[in-house]
Write a structure and sequence with these properties.
- This protein has three helices and no strands.
- The chain has helices at 14-29, 51-59, 65-76.
- The chain is flat, with a radius of gyration of 16 Å.
């Protein structure tokens, strides 16, 4: 089980996730001049857009390859469906 997973666990909560994030950022600030945090909420956010369109736009960002590849993997495992 992933130690960074807070949802759908008996002991998990939004509060626990925020506390963990705050702790990690504070710890990193002790040895780094700045810390970049990218937070994404994928809950139904991409159900109504074409995934290849989103990935084309994300590819234009200055992201490390492993982050982009992680997003591609995420979208490959999820389906897109728009109904009228």
């Amino acid at each position: 089980m992933n130690g960074n997973q807070f949802a759908f666990r008996p002991s998990g909560s939004t509060t626990a996730a925020i506390i963990t994030l705050l702790h990690k950022v504070t710890h990193l600030m002790l040895t780094n001049p700045y810390v970049i945090v990218i937070a994404l909420d994928f809950s139904k956010a991409f159900d109504t857009v074409r995934h290849h369109t989103v990935l084309d736009k994300i590819a234009q960002l200055d992201l490390p390859d492993h982050i982009y590849n992680w997003l591609v993997n995420f979208f490959n495992e999820h389906s897109h469906q728009a109904k009228y």
